[in-house]
Amino acid sequence: MAAAFVTWYLLYVVMATTAPGLMGRRVAGQVNVAMVAGLAQFATTFLLTWAYARHARLRRDQAALDLRWTLATRTGQERVR
Fold first, then answer.
1. For residue 60, which of 8, 10, 40, 56 is within the disulfide window of CB 3.0 to 4.6 Å?
2. pTM of the model
3. Closest CA to 43 of 55, 51, 32
4. CB within 8 Å of 37: residues ≥ 6 apart
5. How far apart are CA 38 and CA 27, in angstroms?
6. Closest-CA residue to 13 (of 47, 42, 44, 37)
7. Which residues pair with 56 in a beta bridge?
8. Cα separations in angstroms, 7 against 1, 4, 15, 41, 68
9. Are 3 and 11 within 8 A, CB to CB?
10. In the 8-state DSSP scheme, what is residue 59?
11. How many Cα atoms are found within 13 Å in the side-chain-facing hemisphere of 16?
12. Alpha-carbon Rg of the chain, whole angstroms?
């Protein structure tokens, strides 16, 4: 996902510098292709952040807690900080 996002970002930058006519084409009113693509960048950033946070909460956090508990019980520590 990181590679796809970086590619999407670089495509936006390359298109903005090499195809100003395309990026300046109006979509609706004063809104042009560049504005739509820029807002899509924000949307994909928030979507990826949400997806990662959800994945970490459901999969990674529990694994980290399990590992921490296992290590604490092996070393005789009763209180895990």
1. 56
2. 0.65
3. 51
4. 12, 15, 23
5. 13
6. 37
7. none
8. 10, 5, 12, 11, 37
9. no
10. I
11. 12
12. 22
Q: In which element (H, E) is residue 71 found?
A: helix 61-75
**Count of residues making up the chain:** 81
Task: Give the Cα separation of 18 and 70 in Å (integer).
Answer: 55
CA atoms of 53 and 10, how far apart (whole Å): 24
Q: In the numeric block, which tokens belong to residue 38? A: 């820029």
Cα distances (Å, whole numbers) of residue 8 to 2, 5, 12, 30: 10, 5, 6, 24
Q: Over the stretch 15-65, which tens digit does the pLDDT of each residue have?
A: 999 999 999 999 999 999 999 999 999 999 999 999 988 888 887 777 777
Please answer whether residues 37 and 25 qualify as being in contact, where contact means their C-beta atoms are separated by less than 8 angstroms. Answer: no
79 pLDDT higher than 80: no
